[in-house]
């Protein structure tokens, strides 16, 4: 087990000056979530594998001060999302057929959004309908709307990834960043933060380009962390397409070590931007917005802490923490998907 | 020219007790839109065909009291949408390949949403980026966000339709209604009403299930009207898949005349619901919400008035107006996509 990829990962600690956090009711939330999963009986994924996602721990790291009942509802979606991802997005008959994935994606989206009975018998659709009903019961209509729109964004991103896989297309880096923002599930996950907190962020704040940029920046940092964590797993399973490391390897003549180094540089520049932009957004922001920004930070840190323990990533050891970014340059990355985020630092 | 389909259409006037309306600056808006189109030079569609969509007239019927500058920006999107629809969704290399449509759809969505340069040279992406910049200049961040989310919903719906076409799949009626709500472009069109009006509807109202149901109901009535109008055109062009008439013909043993009759009954029941639900929404609603509801009604009527004159539908004569619905039953239609809308009539 001394392959270069592991050495590469072990060499490079992440820059993440955010303290760890965890909701105190995590054990209770997990117990109740597991009971729900047993009732829902999602096919195609084993109970062991599903519980091994530690989704309760995952989301409890994101909203340490959340309302327990609401955090449970959000946690159910995280479990559901991992199961759907495993059985319908990453592997299986739909994973390389956009023509088969799209009807399934729109079916579950309908189940999520429709208050009445969704008229469906697919267990995934029924489980998601139940989650939608819970959100309508504990969240405001605007929070629910934001979540459902973010959920659609995720599904469209996954459909695009499925199309790339079907066409054996390897995206360039800018295109990949855009794709990854869709596929990573960051949008629906971050949309559940204010649901978990039980405090609606005013629309004038939440819909501003600045807060949109900050939210996507947090999602992308977490997604790139997952790319680095999962690269070894995906290599073992032969699924190494569409990962930031393989995209970099494909785009220019890097060695594997150079590609991992470049990926961490990219990720650390985004992390630095997140910290600066968080500071900018907090200034003058409402209390719910400030709590939301805190949770975005908890999310970045929590995602790493979770990944280092979770069986999904096969117990990679800790990469350790770096005091400073591998690439300290404060100027924008030259990729259209993200470069405008730096403009939002302005006064 | 005495085929049964024409007779069927001529026999059945629409139930639509809403007065016609038109923005007084329509001629000026059209002139400025045409100048923009000439600058943008969208490929694949002739100038004549594009101007023949009468998109300025179309949208000016929706917001007769709108702010001229804002109505112009919205009008540009209507022209753009028709061009994109014709060249990328309904015909051409992408129209039956979800794997090719999805990268294009996500590319233009990115151009719409990204404030900085989108890093693209596709004329459709550049034109849509220009429209996005106009919206950011004249609308609130929340209005822009609602439009961009609605735009994504449209593109996902079209992708699904493309997948159905590729797989030669004819949906059942419930599935079709859900599909049609996505493909019809009603969501982005209706999201431009409050931009045209220059008055933001508060999120607590706009995101409520009741207003969502009313908005989708208006879109679906207009979409079914378009289905009926375009059925003849599509028959001539050999594109008769995925139209409410063909779906009904496919689902049960109807004659063509019976299928058209059933389609108008369905449409008229939705029209009746729209009127009742409008009344319910208006009661206690804010002034911007009431104006928005007015515009939804103008939209239904305006869409018909526009369709009867536009070359796109080859100058069908007026079907005339009916005083009462062909099917007067007030109870919910038994399709999960729409049945919950009737629940929103409750106190």
From TrEMBL, chains A, B:
<keyword id="KW-0456">Lyase</keyword>
<dbReference type="InterPro" id="IPR008949">
    <property type="entry name" value="Isoprenoid_synthase_dom_sf"/>
</dbReference>
<keyword id="KW-0479">Metal-binding</keyword>
<dbReference type="InterPro" id="IPR034686">
    <property type="entry name" value="Terpene_cyclase-like_2"/>
</dbReference>
<dbReference type="GO" id="GO:0046872">
    <property type="term" value="F:metal ion binding"/>
</dbReference>
<protein>
    <recommendedName>
        <fullName>Terpene synthase</fullName>
        <ecNumber>4.2.3.-</ecNumber>
    </recommendedName>
</protein>
<dbReference type="Pfam" id="PF19086">
    <property type="entry name" value="Terpene_syn_C_2"/>
</dbReference>
<dbReference type="GO" id="GO:0010333">
    <property type="term" value="F:terpene synthase activity"/>
</dbReference>
<comment type="similarity">
    <text>Belongs to the terpene synthase family.</text>
</comment>
<keyword id="KW-0460">Magnesium</keyword>
């Amino acid at each position: 087990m001394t392959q270069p990829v592991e050495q590469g990962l072990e060499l490079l600690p992440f820059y993440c000056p955010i303290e760890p956090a965890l909701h105190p009711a995590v054990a209770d939330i997990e117990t109740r979530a597991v009971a729900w999963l047993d009732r829902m009986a999602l096919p195609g994924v084993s109970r062991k594998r599903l519980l091994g996602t530690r989704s309760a721990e995952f989301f409890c790291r994101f909203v340490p001060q959340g309302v327990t009942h609401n955090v449970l509802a959000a946690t159910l979606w995280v479990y559901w999302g991992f199961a759907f991802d495993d059985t319908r997005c990453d592997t299986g008959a739909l994973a390389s057929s956009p023509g088969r994935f799209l009807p399934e994606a729109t079916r579950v989206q309908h189940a999520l959004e429709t208050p009445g009975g969704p008229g469906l018998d697919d267990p995934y659709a029924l489980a998601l309908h139940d989650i939608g009903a819970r959100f309508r019961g504990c969240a405001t209509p605007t929070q629910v709307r934001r979540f459902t729109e973010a959920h659609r964004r995720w599904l469209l991103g996954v459909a695009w990834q499925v199309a790339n896989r079907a066409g054996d297309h390897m995206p360039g880096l800018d295109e990949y960043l855009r794709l990854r923002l869709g596929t990573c599930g960051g949008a629906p996950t971050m949309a559940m933060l204010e649901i978990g907190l039980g405090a609606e962020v005013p629309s004038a704040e939440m819909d501003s380009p600045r807060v949109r940029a900050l939210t996507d920046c947090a999602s992308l940092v977490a997604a790139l962390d997952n790319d680095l964590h999962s690269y070894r797993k995906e290599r073992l399973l032969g699924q190494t397409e569409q990962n930031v490391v393989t995209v970099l390897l494909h785009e220019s003549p890097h060695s594997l070590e150079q590609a991992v180094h470049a990926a961490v540089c990219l990720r650390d520049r985004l992390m630095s931007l997140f910290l600066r932009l968080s500071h900018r957004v907090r200034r003058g922001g409402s209390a719910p917005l400030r709590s939301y920004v805190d949770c975005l930070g908890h999310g970045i840190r929590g995602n790493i802490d979770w990944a280092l323990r979770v069986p999904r990533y096969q117990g990679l050891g800790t990469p350790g923490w770096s005091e400073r970014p591998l690439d300290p340059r404060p100027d924008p990355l030259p990729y259209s998907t993200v470069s405008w985020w730096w403009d939002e630092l302005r006064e």
